[in-house]
Structures are given as structure tokens and as C-alpha cells.
Batch of 4 targets.
Target 1
Amino acid sequence: MADIKPLAVDQVYRRCPEDCLDFETTETLEPLGDPVGQERVLQAMRFGTGIRNHGFNLFVLGPRGVDRHALVRRFLEQRAADENVPPDLCYVYNFSEPDAPRAIRLSAGDGRRLRRDMDGFIEELRTGVAAVFESEEYQSRMQDLQEGFEQRQQKGLSAIGEEANESGIALISRPGGFTLAPMRDGEVLEPDEYEKLPDDERKKIEDKVAELQKKLQQEIQRIPALRKELRNRLRELNEEMILFALGGPVRELKDHWSHEPDVTSYLDAAREHVVENAEALRGRRGSGPPDELLERFRVNLLVDNAEAEGAPIIYEDLPTHHHLVGWIEHQMRNGALYTDVSMIRPGSMHKANGGYLILDARRVLSHPMAWESLKRVLFSGNVRIESLERLYGLVSTSSLQPENIPVSVKVVLVGERLLYYLLAHYDPDFLELFKVEADFADDIERNDDNHTLYARMLASLARQSNTPPLDRSAVAGMVEHASRLADDQRKLTADDRVLRDVLTEAGYWAGEANSEVITREHVQRAIDERNERAGRLRQASLEQIDRGTVMVSTSGEAVAQLNGLSVIQLGDFRFGRPSRITATARPGRGQVVDIEREVKLGGPIHSKGVLILSRFIASRYAPDNELSLSGSVVFEQSYGGIEGDSASLAETCALLSAISGVPLRQSLAVTGSVNQHGQVQAVGGISEKVEGFFDVCRQAGELDGHGVIVPAANVEHLMVKPAVREAVSEDRFRIYPAETVNDALDLLTGMTAGELDAEGHYPDGSFNRRVADRLREFARIARKFREERDKGQEGDGAEA
């Protein structure tokens, strides 16, 4: 029998020596700059932000608990501070294509100045135009034009009237036009008097009237042309007066913006638009320019970098299509939707131009078309503002189509590893656009150097959360808890979210104790309180076992029955729970039935574990013959799904006990997986599993030689709670490391498992000899059964 000694207390828990911490409290420590143990991700981020080639955007991936967003933002802030401030982005009215607003890029701060200058220009239009049209010069010149028109119009009519008078014909003006009538002695002849005139005289009058009528018609036809000429002259006068009033301000603006060709061309277009709309600018009855017309000269400062220092860093917490690429607002006016250039709103791609845009991958993927819009911008390098309704033809109403704006943005997606791998597998564009993978480490090495760095990190977390400083004992306690969270004595978790929560709660308990510093006792109480708050189901499970509702034996011996260990995860809280595993064995054809699998409660990994243990038994006990066995294993009183292979060692021992008839100690629980060669492999949640069986035994009042058999490879993963450490130190609870199935059988049966000798036999009295003998008996019984069955079939054939 192998001499397997239980683990010592320093093997089940690695303490952090306080003498390696050269400070009294964390108040004297400098805050930590870069995160501990994340050199790989920092190097990836340096590369990703340094390279400017197309497609080298970053995807920062890692576990949920790591505060990836804060680290990314802190890194980018340090880098962006030394980079150039990007230009301002503006939209202005397009005077040649009103539905396509024009984009203008200006140096940082110039956007405000242009907006201010154009606001001043609008005020000049509002006040200067009214003053010009109310001036005496304008009124005098307009009156001269109108009088000249009247004179030219009357001159032609007067000439016709004089000619008519000389011919004895009167030119009479009526509301409906002009009439020609014969007259004598200055009086118009009545119709009956006219009829009394001789025929030749009447003919002479009629011919003259016809001639005058023709001339009158020609003169009347000249009146619209004269009026059009008057309108043109008045328009030229208006334009001249407006240019006179605004020529100086426009020239000043062009001189001021001579270094910006886009602005000078815009000012030229604005001046032409003013001239073309001089009449409209005058307004009705001299009321002044209408507001709708003045708003055309308003500058929409889309992105203002006047006060920026370095490159922008934008975090978009609601990455919808509109929030990424911008949108166009509308207002209801007179029952219809109205918009203009001032209602164009920027997206985060505009705001991050020349800098960095941080997005949460899950949120981008959860909003309709946001992911496709992001990819379209990254592929084209241009931002196109367009609504989803218009983009997909869901509406046909006309709207603005702003000019596309070229952008240069380094996008940093932050997400879980699963999202990264799914996108890389299913989206062919993903790896073309996100070529830099920055992967956070789940945990970091635990050594003296990192103890100091971890202490500085805790000091930083304490300052950020406004908690009291930690003394050395508290730092040691937090380091030890970090190892437990990492499930490894040689590692520390990188999950700063949980550490921050524990630290905040420890600060609360320090305050309750009127302590100015956080001590180990406050840290431990915070941990215990967290477990207690989340422990309702754990307590209910213990109560069911204590009352016998769930059957778990912790004393005596039993054949084909053993306590297996599993872990239940509920949110951030997990706990271990023992479960009874039973097995049956009878002669058969080498089949081990996994009852969980048969009823579809067992997962694929658990089923794999059962198949492996069945092959292990076959290869060990029947290497050259057919295995005659029909066995089964099951988790008793299990009504939910079971996954994982951590129970395969316990299932193997239970099945071998069923075959041999040798009872197993119920005071020991077992965890570990088995390979086909009988080696015990490491499993997860080892500390919680040990604690789960410990709690059951302590509740039953039985802590006298009880214990757990764990894989030897899991020893350095143990970080058990104080109660278990105390019981281990007093030798009331034992934790045994097992490297092989034989080690576990030695402990469970009290017998020597036994090894094969040179002739291929196990030693007499060994456990394995009992199993081998029993399987040979199974084979004999099965062979006899087949022979009798075959004889019976032959007899039936002879009778036939």
C-alpha cells in the first residue's frame, strides 16, 4: 500500500509574508501606472496605435472582470496628449446645390472664428440691408427710375394724342384701355351726328382712326417691355446698393480667410447668392430679410476642437448607426417636416477624427446596422450621414445629402474573447479591419516583485474608491484572496473589479470599527460577508443534506457508493457540493452505461469521461480478452444537467468497488479526472470542492479523519478558507494528493491496489486481484450462458 501523506497546512494555502512588504500603509505608495503583468497587451496597444496603415485597428479582448475600458482609456490619454489636434469640421449651405450641404475642414479653432464671422455677416445683412433700402439715395434713385418710366410711357401716348387732335380725333383714356373717337370743335361727336357726316368724310375719319389705332397698339405693346426694363433697373439698383453696403465686409472676410481656399470660394458663392436674392433680402414692403434666407449663411460647426489638447479620445456608450455616423434632425413646420444645414448632427466618427474611438463590441453588435455602418466607414475612410430609413428605401421623402467627410480614426473595440473568435470566424471583413489583437492576461505571476506592484495597484484602487489606506496585513490578505480568485497559489487574478469591490467593502467595515486603516480582519470580514450574502442556495443545499433529503454519507463504508464533488456557479459566487455516485456491475459485453447521458442530462465532456474510464478498465483488467462487464454509473438525486469530467475518478472507484465487492470509505470524498492509463488529472474549482465536503462533515459533527482525495496536480491550486486550514493543521480534516487511480483505491479501501508482476498477475490479496478475479468470474458466467443458449438453439433446430 502506497504511503500517501495528507497535505500540510502550508500546502493547502500559500500565505503572503508581511515582511516582504516594505511599507506600513499603502498611503505612502506611489500609484501604479501600467497594470501589473499586462506587458503583452500594452505592447500590442503601442503597436496598434503607432501603425497608421489601413485596417490596423485594435480589438482589446479579455475576461469581463478586468477593467479593460479604464486601462485602454488611460493608455490612449497618455499617447494622445503628444499628438496633433485634428481640424475643425463644418457644414455650410451649398448655394449651387441646396440639398447637398458642403463640408469644410479648418484648423483647430478656425471653425469658431468662421462661425462668428458669418454670424456677423448675417447681422450685416439683417441691419445693413434695411438701412440701405431706407436711405435717401436709394429712395431718390428709385423715384428717378420710376419717373423716367412714366415719362417714357406718357411720351408715346402724348404723341399719338397730338396727332389725333390734329386729325379731329380724340384719344380717350378709360379703365379698360384707350378709345379713339371723332370730334368737332373740341367735342366728341355723338353716334347719330357721326352718321350724318358725308361718306367720304366718314371714310377719311375711319382710315385715320385705324392708323392711330395701329400706332396706339404698338405703343401699348411697348409698356410691358418698359416695365421689365424698369424691374431690371430696379434690381440692378438693389444689387448695386447691397454690394455697396456689403462689399466692404465681404472683402474683409476674404482677406481674413485668404489662407483657406475653401472658405474664400464659399464667401464668393455667398456674395453671389446675396446679389441674386437682393429682392428677397429687401423683404416685403421693406420689412428686411426673412429669417429662412438669413439661415442659409449660418455655419454649422460640426466638430469644435478649439479647446482640445492632443488627439481626441471618444467613448461611445450607445453605438447606434446615428450615433456613429451622425444624423439630420427635422422640425414640424406648417404640417410638414423641415430641415436645413444647421440641423446636421455629428456622430462619434466625426468627433474622433484624427484620434481614437473606443467602442464596446457587444453593444455595437446589438444595435441594428451599427456594425455594418462602422465597417463601411473604416473601408471607405469617409463618413456619410444618412438615415437608416433612407439608406434602405423605407421612406421616399426628400432630405439633405451632406457631402461625405474624410476621416482618419483609430477604432478600439473592447470585448470578450468569444466575440473576437466568433467575428473572426463568421465575418470575412473583421480581420481585414481589426488586425491588432490585444489580449489581456487572466492572471499574473505571484512573486515578491509583483507583491509590491500589486500593493501599489491596491493603493491606486483605494484612492479611486475613497477608501482608507491598507496596512501590510490587509495587503497580504488581498494578495492571498487574489490567488484564490486565480485558483492558483502561483498566480494573482487580474480581475480588478472584484478586488475593488472587496476593497470598498473592507473600507466600510474599517469605518464601522472606527479604524483609520484597513486591516486583514476587515478584508476577511468583507470576503465572509460577500459569501454570506450570496450563500442562500449553498445553505439550502447543506440543510437538505443535514435533514437526509439529499443522501450523502460521511461515515462507515459502502460498496459501489462514493462521494463525488461538483461546483455550482451562480453569478460571481460558486460553491462546492458533494453528490452520491453509485455504480452497478454484472456480466455483460464490456459496456458501461452512463445513465446521465442516456436521459440527456450529461454533457459531452462528462460522457467522454465515462467512455475513458470504461476503456481504462478494459485495458487494465482484460488487455488480451473481451471484457465481460455490464456496468452503470450515475449521480444520485441529480435532476439537472451534469457537465465536466472531474467526477471520472470517483466514478471509476465506485465501478471497481461494484465489480470487486470491496467497500469504500464514506469519510472521504473524491474529485479528479482519469485518463486511459489510470493517471489522475487536474480539475477546476478545487478549493470550493474541498470546502463543500468540509462543510457537510462539520455540519454532521464529524471531523475526525475525514477528508478529500484531490489530484496531485491540483495541490498548487488549493487556497482553502480559514476553517479548513485550522482543521488541517489540527489533523481533523485531511486532503490527500493522488497521482493514479491506485493511489485513490489505496486510500478508499485500506487495501493495497497492487501492480502487475512479470507474469501479468496482480498480487494475492490486492484490490486489483479482487477485480481481476471477479471479471474472470463474469467471463466464465457469460461464457456458460452463451453455451447454454447456443445448445438450446441447436435443440430447437433439430426438432424442427
Note: The chain has a mean pLDDT of 87.
Target 2
Amino acid sequence: MTNFFDPLRARLALALAVALVPIVIYDLILAYRGYQDAEARGWATVRQLAIVASANQNALIEGTRRLMVGLGESAAVRAAADGSPTPDCSRTMARVLTTLPEYSDLAVVDRQGRVQCSAVDRSIGASVVDTPWFKGMTETQGFTLGYFTLSRETAEPIVSALLPASGSDGTPAGAIVAGIRLPWLGSLAQKHGLPENGIVYLLDSKGTVMTSSDRFLAVPEPAHGIPQSRKSPADEAAPDKAILTEVAQRRVTEFVSTGADGRERFFSAANLQNGSLYILFGMPSVSAMSWSFYQTLAFIIGPLLMLMIAIGVAVVGGELLIARGIRALLATVDAYGRDELDAKPDVGRSPREIRQFADAFAGMARKISDRETELRRSLDEKDALLREVHHRVKNNLQIVTSFLNLQSKSTKDGAAREVLTEARVRVRTLALVHRYLYESADVRQVDFASITEALADQLGHAHSLGQRGISIRLALDSVPIPAAAAVPVALLITEALSNAVKHGYPDGARGVIDLSFSRGEDGNAELRIADDGAGLPVAEDGQARIQPGIGMALMQAFARQLGGKMRLEAGDPSGAVVVVDFPLAAETDDHGEEGADAAA
């Protein structure tokens, strides 16, 4: 399974990410500044819409004030304010009310709080002493608006407007009162084409929401007998009461609030002309910032998305353009390691450089294969030639052996016959070694155990050991030895066994000759030949005395040729032991005449 986040692709992705990080940071800074600008524009939009939303209400309030000022100039109204009403006052009020549906009632009250004149007949004579607006009339010096109550005549929510009136003599008397229908005030906010998701609240001087741009929200004070269960779904968007109170107290004019519906909104307050009522306009923050919000969002998401796409392109591109070709090259290298030099890298549509590299790989493999074929052919020819040489040497040595055998049989002298027999044994040993070399699968080395077993068998026949009751016991490790070491080690074994038979078992003595060969952990070999025969002569000091002779000289020469050392020890309890230590990997000294020189 392909690992798309291997070190190569990961480094490519990291390099590309590092290269894009400054751009992303720059875009994020621009996005942050853009967001700040968008937020500022959003607040300006909400502020302007709040002013727009209050325009009609201000016009209505100003029109109410002018209407009441105009009515106050009427003699009938002045007389009613003095407590001397005439029918003309009520007719005037009724005539005006029929043309102005935004008002629920127009009336004149005297100083004692009794209605002297009204557009609604059943209101005449009623007492308004207990109303909040009458209680504050003595403190009012001009036009006042902001008392939220219910009309006693129609039971509809109204905002009362009050203008002190002068009597017939021009002195302060009662007041002219107008009841402005609250739904009418709320509906005016919709006449300016405000955003659909915007909402307008009308607040009184206590921060109570009297109406909104869609419907009646709040409930007047319980003292007026209004059911407290009247609620509107629009109150879910309304800010907390504490914030509305601060707005009414002019401590806060702009703020951000999250309503019960979970949406964050920008709010801006505008004070109406009379000073006791407030228009509060709010709209969702996202809408307030309009397209700027989405532009800011695009500034943030765009670079991050670009960075993710770039990293993805680096990962996929690294896989398609680089990693896949490199894996194919590595697979080809593994095939070359398995000696499959005809394997070709499958780089597909990798870049030209990868394909050129793959072609170079394939060309190199072809050259190596051709060179290896040539070397194998040359080596086979040399092996064949070397086998032929060993074969011919073996044949020539057999001829020499035959000559020595014929010469030995024709010789009457026993000492000469013995010398010829020893020479024949040595020549046959050489012939045996060469036979094993040309018959071996590898002419450069030979198995020590195999050649030693054959050599021991050959010497047993040569010396008639079976008839004499002498046996050779072998304990050999199967270790290959170089061809250059095969001749000296075989001749050394021949001399050691011949000396043991000749000197260890005189006069028909019987016994056992142990021949062992082992390789140590250090790479050195130990050849040990021990007999249980007569043993070595003992000097006067009790030490074994070695008598020099041609056999001993040859063994020492062959040990040096192997790069080792030979020592002669007395057996326990009898006999003699020849020990030769030599390195298996060491190059042997090729001194063909050393044995002859030592014998001489």
C-alpha cells in the first residue's frame, strides 16, 4: 500500500507550505483589517438605519405637537382648560380625530384632572388624576410624550402626549391630551424599506419596549389592569432588560447583543424629539456587515484553502512525478541484487529526468550482464584449462609412479628399494591431490575430509597396514581448503603417517594412528597425528629427543609453506604426536624446491 506521506512527499509539501505561509499571513492580516472595516461599516449602517427608522416617528411627534399647539389657540379649548367647556370644543376635537386615525382620542383636562372636552363623548367628565401623565403635568413646562398606557375608552395601547394649555385670560390652566395609537407608531418603521431581518423597538423613558416594527411586545404597568400574559415571539430578539434600561438612561447608544433566538445583532439607539422615547434598531451582525462579512470570510478561507490545495498538489504531484519513479528504480536495484540484470525500471510517464535515469540504469545493467557473461566464459575456459592441467599432471605422475615401481622391483638393494618405495608414495600423493582438483566442482579449493580419507586409504594399501594390524582412525571437520594448500598439507600427512608406521611400530607391532583435523573460531586449523607406538627417544635429561631426518625436514618445510608451525610431542602414555597449526585463509608459500632442499 502506497504511503502518501513518506519523507519525500512530506518534505515537498512542507517546502511548498513554507513558501506559501508569508502569503497566507499577509492575506490573514488583510482579512483582519477588512473585518475591522466591515464591522465599522456595519455599525455605520445600523446607525443610519436607526435614524431612518425614527424619521416617521419624529414626524408624527412633531405633527402631534403642532396639532396640539394649534388646538390650544382655539377659544373653546381655552375655555375648557379653565373648566368652562362649550359644545364647540368636543365637536372640534371629534372633527379633527376623524381625519387623523393615528390618534385614539383628543381631550382637554382642567387643573383638577377632569376631562372637560373630548373627541369621545364617554370620556367627558372622567377623572385622570391617577394617571402618570397627569401627576407629572405640574412639572411639565412644554410638550411631553412618553407615557405608555391603555386607552380607557378603547382599551388599546397608546402613548399619551401632553401640552400645557392656557386659560381664556392667558394664564396656565389645564392641558391638551392626545392618545397616539402604539401600533401606528410601530407601523411607521416599516414605511422606509428597512431590511427584512431588521427590527425596530420603541422604548419609553424606563427602557420598556412599547412596540416593535412587527407587533405589540410589552405590557404596560399592572396598575392599569392589563393582563400580563400578553407576549410576542418578537421578544426573542430583544436585548436584556438591563441593557434597555441603560439605553433609556442614555448610558449606551450602540451595543452588540445575542437574543433568545441565539443570533448576534448590532443595535443602535436614536432619541426621539421629545427626549423621553427612543427608537432602537437592530439587525444580525452578519447582515449588518453584508457582503463585507463574506468578503472577509473569503479572505480567511481562500488562502487556507489554497494552502491545503497546494499541499495536496505537492503530495499527489510528488507521488506521480517523483516517488513512483524512484520506487520503480529501487525495485529494479533490488532485482539487480538478485542477479536479475534483465529487469527494466517501469517508470511509466515519469518526468524526462527519471526516464533518462531509468534508461541509464538499464544500460548499465546490460553492460554489467555482458561483462559478467564474458567473465564467466573466460573463467569457464580457465577452469577447463586448469582441470586439463591437473589431469595431465596426474597422468604424468602416474607414469612416474609406474617407472618408480618398475625400478623398485628390479632393484636388489633393500635400502634402495625402500627409498624408491617412499618416493613412489609421495608421487602417488601428488597424483591423488591433482585428481581431486580436476574432479572437484571448484578447481580453486578441495574438501579436506574427502581428500584425507582417500589419502589414508591409499597409504594403508601402500604400507599394508591392514595385514600388519595397524589402523588409521579419522576425526575430520569437512572444511574446504585452498588448492594451493592441498599439496603441502597432503604431503605433510603422508610424511607423518609414513614416519609413524616406520618408526612407531617396528618388528610387527600393532596399534592405532589417530588423525584429526578441526577449525577454530579464529579461522586457524589444527592438524593432529598421534600414534600409540614406540614413542620418541628420551635424552639423559628426560626430554624427548628428535632425530633429524628427511621426513622431519620435509614436514617442517611443508608446515612453513602452509604459513603455520609444527611441533612434535610425546604421546600419553606412549607414542608420538605431530601437531601443525596453520591459517586456512593464509596464502601458502610456493617454494617447489623447499622439500628437496631440506632433504639435501
Note: The first strand starts at residue 103 and ends at 109.
Target 3
Amino acid sequence: MNQHNIPFNSSMSSFMSAASQPSVQDSEFNQNTQYSPEQQDYCWQMIKINGQPPTTRNCHSSTQFGQYLIIFGGREGDGKKRIVNDIYIFDTEKSNWFQPKIDKSKLPQLRMGHSSQLWKGTHIIIYGGWNGAQVLSDVIFIDLRKGIDKLQIVIPSMIRGEAPMRQFHTANIIDNQMYVFGGGDGKYWLNDLLIFDLVNLEWSGPVQTNGIAPVGRLQHSAISYEKKIFICGGEPDQFRQLNDIFYLDTSNLTWSKPQVTGDEPSARVSTTGCLIDSRIYYFGGYDGVQWMNDVHVFDIENNRWSKIETYGYKPRPRCRHTANIVKGQLYIFGGNDCELSFNDILALPIGVQVPEPTILKDMIGMLENGTFADVTFVLGESRIKAHKCILASRCSFFASMFTVGMRESQESVITVQDISASTFKKLLEFIYTDSFQFQHLGQDQVIDVMVAANRYGLDRLKRLCEKFLVKHIDLDNVIELLYLSDMHQAIELKRMCINFTMAYFDIVTKKEEFKKLSKSILLELLQNK
């Protein structure tokens, strides 16, 4: 047995048996509160609906298809708390609920804790779940090609491979493969990976993966981004919750656990995740004690968590709800807490998400890849490609070099002497990005860059180096820095070295190397005495 496959003692989540207690924060709305335009982006709105909504429910699925949210199945929260197999559709533009015209005899069997994914914009793929008596293993296709009101349900008659039973798992479709992770089979909390080929209707798995896989879990979140699947949270047994992040690179089936920073959410089960650009928005969940209604964002590009302050009519804390993004709005439907199940629908405008600027990354990429390069610098055994127009526009030295009449203006290969390849590369990186990274550089390396910056007329880079070196003046290096700053016109560094020397005059002047300073420097020191 896989060491991460934990015995599964119940078909229902552990929090269903938790003692009833007040929620962490009831729905709240202050009519007198004033919101700035920026705050409106995160101001909750209670949707005034038309039409007959579904019954209150949890553990259902909600799949976005254009402007529509297609709700299937789940467990009713009122009355006999039946597990259902009905289909409701919410039109986000008209705020209208309706049911499609479907022969009820053709509906899939009732279920909860299943997965539902849109494939190619033409089909919804429903898989697994629990029908109240057993864990399911069937795959159902809902054909959308004839329109939202004429759904066709197709149950494949022939599927290859062993169909695994799963509930409270996750499924993500990338290309024509559906990747199923975790969940329970009625006996264990699982961490295996299954793949279903949607074209050939064939199961494979458990699939061998690389790296360290997440522990077995159910009721977690899984979001796909650039052929990677990001797993967050869930429960590894009846007593604990998780807030870890893993991702599976489907190109090589390798698991990784990123090092994250920022304001992480508390460990929780049954939170929902929705992707906008490269950010995953998580809402709600249950942390083992309290039901939540907070919003956290995970920035995939920077591996950073942040908590979003929201306003307006906040949803009642809940879990086992669904969430979808439609035209920049996060829609929440249903779910439950310790007292109630819900059939309300609320929207949180996320606003226009402006990606972080990429010009520095793009410019460095051009330099490193040599894309469209029209000049090559030769420094010993090293050859560095670059772009004349960028160099000339950012550096007067290169502008003069490439001016008509100069020999280098006609050459595409230029030999550079009296400077190391590593230092020259750092000069070019500054020219391309107008920034300089001092991490992992020693004092001698920074001195080399400062000297080169002075030679090439890069005054801003020279001053950045001066600023760095000023912070590192001490009794061991002050004489060397004073000499170099005088030789290479590093005015501020020289001034600070003189000040330091005057403060420790008796100690510095007794050093042997002090006698090697030029007469002009010695004169300046005497004038400051």
C-alpha cells in the first residue's frame, strides 16, 4: 500500500461531524460604508436572481460555459438532505436560473463529491463521486454543441482500462488528457495520479511520477496553468487540514513543492480556487474549527501568497461550495456551514488584472539568447552577442563607437580588451535593464564593475557601485578605495573615504600602504585635518 494512502473510514468528510458552533464571521454589510474606486474591485455583491434557483446544496459541481454556470448534482441541505442528479443553469448576464430540457430518465445517476471539467468548449466531463451507497467510477459526457438548452448526455458504452472509483478528488484537463489526483475510494485517502484519454476513452494508472508527491488527501483544490497542475489544501485524514502547495508538471510528470512567501491562508479543506492570469483566487473552506469566507491569492509567477481585503455583502462563511470566474467576477454558489446549506449566489468583482511588467525579463532574454543580435563582442575565449541600437541609445561610448566613420560601425565582430568577460556582461545587463543586482558579488567584483562603468561613461552604474562600496568601507580597505575612487572619478566614494580616514587618522596613517597614496590625495587629507 502506498505510504500516503491513509485508511478512509467514512464516505463523508470529517467536518460533517464537527460540533455545531458559530461561524467565523456572518454575512455583513454596512450600508453607510463608503468605498473608494479601488475598493469596488473587491466589493461583494448579492445577486438579485430571476427564475427558480436550485435547492440548497453542497458537494455539487459548477462548470463555466461562456456566460453560463452549469450546476450538477450534490447533496441537498434541507429536508431529507437527498443526494440529487438535477441540472440547473445560471445565466450571469441575465441573473436568471433555468433548467434545460432533458429527459430525466437520461440523467446520470445521483451523486456528490464528483468532478466536472469543460473539454474543448464543447463537452462537460463528469467523473466519479458518491451516490450515498458506493463510490462511483463512471465517466459522463455532456454535449453542449446544440446549445445550452439542448444538452445531450452521453455515457460511453466502452472504456478501456480499469475504471477507478473516486470521490472528493480533483480532475484537470490538459490537451486531451484528464489528470485525476487524490480523493478517496471508500477505503483510503489517496495520492495517486490517474490519466483518462478523452479521445481513446482509456484509463491509465496509477501513473508513475517523479519528485515527491503530496500526501494523500481529498477535498483539495487543483488548478491548471501552463500545463502544470497546482494542488492546494485538503484533508489527509479525519483530523487534520492542509495549506500546502504542490504542482505537477504534466510534460514530465514531475511533482515539485515551491518555496512560498507572503500571507498564507490557514490550513483548510474544501476551499475553491479560480485562475485569473497567473493568480489563483481561493475562497472559503473549513479549518477544522471554523468555516471561512476570506479570499487569498497565490501568485504563481512569484510563489507569493497575499490576503485580499473584501468589502460589501460578504458571503456567510462556508465550505463545499463552488466558484467560477466569469468576465472578471468571482461567482460563489451554495455550500454549507455547521448550521445551514445555501443556494445563494454572490459575485466578487476582481477588476482588471494588470500583469506585472516584463520588459526587464524580455530585455535580459534578448541579451542571453542573442535574438536579433547584430554585433558580437570577443573577450578572450568568450563571445557575447548584443544589439547596436540598444547599446547606442543607452550608452554614449557605444554611440560613438557605432557612428559612421568609426571602424567598429562597419564591423559585426569587435574585440574588447582590458576587461573580463564577466564584468563586460554585467555592464551589458545594466545597459539592457537599467538595474544592477549586487547579490552574490564580492567587493573586488563591484570595484571591477565601477572601474568599467567609468570607462564606458555609465555614470548611474558607477554611482550604484559607489553606494554599495560606501557601506563596506573599513580600516582594511579604506586606503585602496580612496586610491581607486580618486583614479576613476568616484567623487562620493572618495569623499566618504576621506571622512573615514579623518575619523581614524592615527590608525590609517600608520599603515604601510598609506605612504603610496598620491601627493594630491595626501594634500586633500591635510586640508581636511
Note: Residues 39 and 311 are 7 Å apart (CA to CA).
Target 4
Amino acid sequence: MAVASEMNRQMLGIASIRASVLAPLVDQIDRRSGKTDLLLASHGILRSQLDDPHAMIPMARYVAIFEDAALVAEEPSLGARLGTLFKPSDIGPIGVLFSISGTIRIGFERLAKYVNTVQSATSSGIFEEEGNLVWTYRLEDPTMWPRRQDSEFSLVASCQLVRSCFAKSWKPLEVHFEHMAPRDRSVLERIFRCPLKFGETANRIIVAGSDANRLYRKEDPALSAVLEHHVAELVDKTRLPDSIKERVRGLISIYLGHKPVTLDAIAADLRISERTLQRRLAEEGTSLRDLIRETRATIAATNMQADVQMARIAEVLGYADSTAFWRARKSWERHIRKPG
């Protein structure tokens, strides 16, 4: 979740963020080595760009620089530590909306509503699971890998938002990461103070239903309406049009392995009929089944490259066992080899 990227026009057709979001990283590297300018240059970035409030850079470069910065700083948990410094003001009016929300649920609903429109190539949202609230975050482009630093920064920053706006002692029920478990989990365990799971289909924070629905403050309806209107106007100026395929793929990433991904459920989320959904996907040359297959294949490939056991991959992707996963994988391969 990139800080301060939200209210600037994005690079046309490219997932991008404001160059100034790199300032905290640059500050860390400046303190520890003299390699800052070399690191930026290796990714085609000039230090002067960081001072320009309107300068934009591709998100892929941001993710790559974040990973390299952790190496240069010799701090594997750099993203997580920077996330603990996150403030509502770092995401402008959206952060203010979060901070005045009456409940944690409303805060995350607003975050889900607007973050997707201001940081492209991202799937984020909320859903219910066993009476609890699940907040998800995932960069869609599989070529943006590794991306441990962005993932840990984003989830720690989201947790910090809750603690700074609702309750300092709050902790999630569970936190999921899409990357494999690091050798040293102590920093993350100390920050979240809850069970952690790795190698999941997306990054997630599970909030207890009682915490999500507890009323912390009474909102000022007039102030909320003004802020909502202001954010909506800014979003309209920066929004890049998503195809129906991209929106469906995003929902699949959010739900896969945790909630049935069915035509009626996806259509309901998009507020269109099942027939309309099928027709619009067909117009873009795909189907819900194809998109589920593609998403599973991408996640499976990433996990297999990391030597994750088949049984674990099957569990993450929502298969009954490794045999069912093996059969599905063979089906994917036949589909890929199929001409046309």
C-alpha cells in the first residue's frame, strides 16, 4: 500500500505511484550507506524526482527498490518497521475518513472502497469468514516479485491505522502473507502479537467480529459526507478504467481459498446479473473458469518455485488434497497447450 500516491494522476495505462513515497527508504539508506544514488539510478530514478510532488514512477520500480533497499540496509524486516511509523495523514483524505469512522469495519470498508481506485494493479477488499472480518491486499501483477517488503509494510501499516485510530492495544486474530516465511519471524510476531501464516493466496488481516463491530465513536454525518464527496471527486480524476476481466480477477484473488468463487457470488459483488457477467467476460475472450484457472496456476507456480509442499499448495488454493491439485495442474497444462 503506497503512501501518498492517491491524489495524483497516474501514468497512463501503467500502475504507478508518487516518487516521493521513496523518501523514507532513501532516508534509511542514507543513514546506513553511501549507496543511495547508485540504488536509485539502477532503477532509473533520480534523487531530484523525490522532491517533485507530482513526479510518478511505475509501481514495479517502487516494489523492486523496496526489496533492494532492505538488502542495502541489511534489514530484512525494513518494510515492517517502516509500517509501524504509518499515520492516517500518509494517505490523505482516505486516512482521515478511516480515522473518523465509528467502527473498525466501517474504516476498512472505506479503505476497500477507495484504495483500489487510487493504487492500480491491486486487489484489496473485505469479506466475512466465520463471523470475522477479513481485510485483503495483493498486487495483481505476478512479475512484481519478490515483494515481501511491500506486503509487510502494507499489512503493518493497516494494523497501525487501527491502533492509532481505535485502540492502541488492538491485535488481529490472525495475519496471512503471500510470501514464504522468513527465517526470522520475531519482528512480525512482536508487531502483530497473533498467529502468522505464510504462503497464502493473498495478504490478509483477520479482525474478530466483536472488534470489527464495536462502536468507538459517534461520527459527524456532515463531516463524513464532505470527506466522502471530496475523496470521490479526487478518485474520479485519477481512476483508470478497469476491464470486467480485471475486476473479476481481483475478486478471485481476494476470495480464493477462503470463500467459494462462483458466478452468482461474483455477479452479486459487481452488482450485475450472472448473464451479463458471462456475456461481458466472453466479449473479453475469457470466462470465470478460465480466470480461476489462471489465478490458481500463477499462485501455484510461485509456491512451487519456493519448494512448497504439494499438500500445502493444495490447501492454499482450496483443493481437498494434493491429488486433486495434481489433477487440476494437469488440466491447466492441457489448456495452455491447446491451440488457439
Note: The mean pLDDT is 87.
